[in-house]
Design the sequence.
């Protein structure tokens, strides 16, 4: 497991976390290179089926991050994202998806150092959990169940 | 079939020092749909842009991926370059190889691999990009300026002098801000009021400026060119049309023992008051918290003496709704109340005061009429100590930054003291002298060499009282940290400049970002110092960081030019990255089922109902429709839609799913 490099996808909003990660860059703070950022206008845009798709495609962990409550560039998108996450998390628990692999957080445009810390802690915790092979099994099993009626 | 060009930038060595740019370009060149790839030292330079333009024309590219810095930096540059070569600007995407990769990882294969992944994500996304046309929206040519200090005054005058309307709001009863409290200004020692008050009068008399004092922003809606603001005009308990400003009420008010805000608590004022003699507008307000009538139900002396019957005890706050096209935030700063220095004894010893209080003592309009007298007994201090960096540059106090103005105003204070108290001794304890600015260093030298101010390099550990003297304990670090003890009569703390209380809430109302110290954040630290991340909202003065007067004025004029440029157009172009509801052929018309969940999610009321009618004019289906003038492109509706009928241009389902798939399915 020592040489396991987790694949992590980060869904972030353009105004806070994307800019915060830019600040990490301009501040030259080094962090683990496992995370690939996908930019969204707002966390409110994130369709949570994308998370399942990411696991489908072999992601070991997922990060979602946007503006702190009350700081949303669009007033309330982050509140929708948070509410949706609470619902989605219980669905994940119900169907057996490991919710420890989804890190939901707020990182503002001023929190460059926090973004680096968050990435490092996420990579460390996913590394400990190991590759997410079980998801593939759940997915196969549920497809079989559907096929068998 | 897509013909995509990938352009990898070295950014000098910023990217190429840790990422193998040649390999990135080579790998990208092998991807499906990529017909051209190249790496170059500076893609944003003129020759770099020419490479892109030529490739678009010669290779007939249908999409361009520029792998360079953050799109927040150069997206407009490259989109413009594409447009100039005849490619729709929205067929250009940027992979962030600098801020998100080369600057944050060590040199190595993993870093290059990440760079390749970031490029691949956008190559796959761009296959689903569509040509889009910018949206045109009208511009309301009125500006709102928040804050009536020197920055707000300057911005208002500059905008109004270009022929546009300005609404200036100020939370206090008078405009003028901190500058009106100052005695003299560095480095010229000209009187602050003398240069400021004519400007204040100009604001009040300008035909294109509407001034609302004692007013605050209640809420803001809308977007660049089309904001709607609600302004709360707090009740002054005065009918301003009837009031002549004679001031009789302020002399007759029986409750005169209220600490004066303008004099920083060193003087008193009545409950009905004009903050200072040159106030604009020069009409009183009733301070309801301290007014005897409002607190105890009787008095009404002011009402009885008013010759024009202008007192209105039943006046209520008034909400004014205004339509504006741009906003300048000029709310300024505040000084840290030094009660968090127990070691300096502020609050405990009346003769330990702040710099702003010293300004009032030195001011001809102040409580001592410009004589330096100590607050406790009115004696003239023979020895005075100035403490620089009281809070500033102090990690332990949570203020690691330099407040910038203190070195200069301390030199000025010490100089004023020496000019006013002949034979007096003054000491300045400092960490470093930061006198960057035109004639600033010369000014400090003058204080030291001509006026004989004693500068001691070291910090103060403790101030305590003994036999009627303030004992100041410190160290002189230029003499091997030799302990220094001074028996002073008065101590002035140059307390840190901090963000206003409530700056965070204001930022949230305006949807602009703020930094960890709650100063408002500029859009780019170097190239966009007066813009915010929210289009149409600009910054001026010390609300962005501690600033002195010339800087605040320059910034205000800069912000005013930005507003004037905005107002020079009749229509604005906006990014077309907005939501759309799909349309299909009859008899389906749209996959939208008309549940209108999107309408409940939309923060901008941008979703309307559209009735689809048959030839007989009967409604056969109601579907959602996006008003492109109102939609801001957050995409919250997209995630709400149960039938995936609404999508957001630039971040469509096809685009984001292809990004996720590209990321994890390596070639």
Sequence:
């Amino acid at each position: 497991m020592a040489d396991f490099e987790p694949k992590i996808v980060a869904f972030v909003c353009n105004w806070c976390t994307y800019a915060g990660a830019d600040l990490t860059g301009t501040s030259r703070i080094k962090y683990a290179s496992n995370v690939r950022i996908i930019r969204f206008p707002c966390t409110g845009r994130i369709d949570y089926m994308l998370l399942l798709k990411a696991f489908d495609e072999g992601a070991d962990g997922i990060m979602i991050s946007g503006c702190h409550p009350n700081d949303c560039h669009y007033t309330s998108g982050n509140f929708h994202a948070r509410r949706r996450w609470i619902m989605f998390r219980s669905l994940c628990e119900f169907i057996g998806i490991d919710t420890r692999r989804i890190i939901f957080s707020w990182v503002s445009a001023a929190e460059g150092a926090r973004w680096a810390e968050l990435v490092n802690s996420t990579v460390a915790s996913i590394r400990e959990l190991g590759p997410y092979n079980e998801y593939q099994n759940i997915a196969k099993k549920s497809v079989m169940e559907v096929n068998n009626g | 079939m897509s013909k995509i060009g990938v352009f990898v930038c070295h950014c000098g060595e910023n990217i190429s020092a840790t990422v193998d740019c040649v390999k990135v370009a080579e790998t990208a060149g092998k991807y499906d749909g990529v017909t051209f790839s190249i790496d170059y030292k500076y893609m944003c330079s003129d020759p770099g842009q020419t490479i892109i333009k030529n490739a678009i024309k010669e290779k007939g590219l249908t999409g361009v991926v520029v792998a360079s810095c953050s799109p927040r930096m150069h997206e407009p540059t490259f989109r413009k370059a594409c447009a100039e070569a005849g490619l729709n600007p929205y067929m250009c995407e940027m992979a962030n190889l600098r801020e998100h990769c080369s600057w944050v990882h060590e040199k190595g294969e993993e870093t290059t691999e990440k760079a390749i992944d970031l490029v691949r994500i956008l190559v796959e996304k761009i296959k689903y990009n569509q040509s889009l046309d910018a949206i045109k929206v009208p511009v309301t040519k009125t500006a709102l300026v928040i804050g009536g200090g020197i920055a707000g005054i300057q911005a208002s005058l500059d905008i109004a002098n270009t022929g546009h309307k300005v609404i200036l709001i100020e939370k206090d009863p008078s405009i003028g801000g901190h500058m009106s409290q100052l005695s003299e200004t560095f480095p010229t020692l000209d009187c602050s009021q003398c240069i400021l008050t004519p400007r204040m009068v100009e604001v009040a008399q300008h035909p294109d400026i509407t001034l609302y004092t004692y007013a605050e922003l209640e809420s803001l809606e809308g977007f660049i060119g089309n904001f709607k603001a609600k302004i709360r005009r707090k009740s002054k308990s005065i009918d301003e049309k009837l009031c002549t400003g004679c001031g009789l009420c302020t002399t007759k008010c029986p409750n005169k023992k209220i600490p004066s805000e303008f004099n920083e608590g060193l003087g008193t004022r009545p409950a009905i008051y004009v903050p200072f003699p040159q106030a604009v507008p020069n009409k009183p307000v009733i301070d309801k918290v301290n007014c005897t009538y409002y607190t105890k139900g009787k008095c009404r002396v002011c009402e009885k003496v008013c010759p024009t019957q202008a007192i209105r005890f039943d006046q209520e706050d008034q909400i004014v709704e205004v339509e504006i096209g741009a906003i300048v935030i000029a709310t300024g700063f505040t000084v840290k109340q030094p009660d968090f220095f127990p070691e300096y004894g502020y609050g405990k010893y009346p003769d330990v005061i702040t710099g702003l209080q010293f300004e009032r003592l030195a001011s001809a309009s102040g409580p001592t009429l410009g004589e330096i007298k100590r607050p406790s007994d009115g004696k003239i201090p023979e020895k005075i100590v100035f403490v620089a960096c009281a809070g500033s540059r102090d990690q332990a106090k949570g203020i690691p930054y330099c407040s910038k103005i203190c070195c200069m105003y301390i030199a000025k204070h010490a100089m004023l003291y020496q000019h006013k108290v002949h034979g007096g001794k003054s000491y300045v304890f400092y960490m470093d002298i930061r006198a960057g600015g035109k004639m600033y260093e010369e000014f400090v030298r003058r204080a030291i060499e001509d006026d004989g101010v004693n500068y001691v390099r070291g910090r103060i550990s403790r101030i305590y009282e003994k036999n009627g003297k303030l004992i100041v304990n410190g160290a002189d670090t230029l003499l091997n940290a030799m302990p220094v003890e001074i028996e002073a009569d008065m101590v002035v703390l140059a307390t840190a400049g901090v963000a206003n209380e409530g700056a965070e809430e204001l930022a949230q109302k305006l949807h602009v970002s703020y930094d960890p110290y709650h100063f408002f954040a500029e859009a780019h630290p170097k190239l966009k110092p007066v813009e915010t991340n929210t289009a149409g909202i600009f910054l001026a003065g010390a609300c962005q960081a501690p600033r002195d007067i010339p800087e605040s004025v320059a910034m205000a004029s800069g912000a005013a030019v930005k507003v004037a440029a905005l107002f020079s157009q009749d229509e604005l172009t906006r990014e077309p990255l907005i939501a759309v509801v799909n349309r299909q052929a009859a008899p389906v018309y749209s996959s939208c089922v008309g549940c209108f969940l999107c309408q409940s999610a939309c923060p901008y009321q941008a979703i309307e109902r559209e009735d689809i009618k048959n030839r007989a004019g009967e409604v056969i289906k109601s579907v959602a429709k996006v008003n492109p003038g109102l939609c801001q492109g957050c995409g919250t509706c997209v995630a709400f839609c149960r039938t995936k009928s609404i999508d957001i241009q630039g971040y469509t389902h096809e685009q984001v799913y292809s990004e996720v798939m590209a990321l994890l399915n390596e070639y």
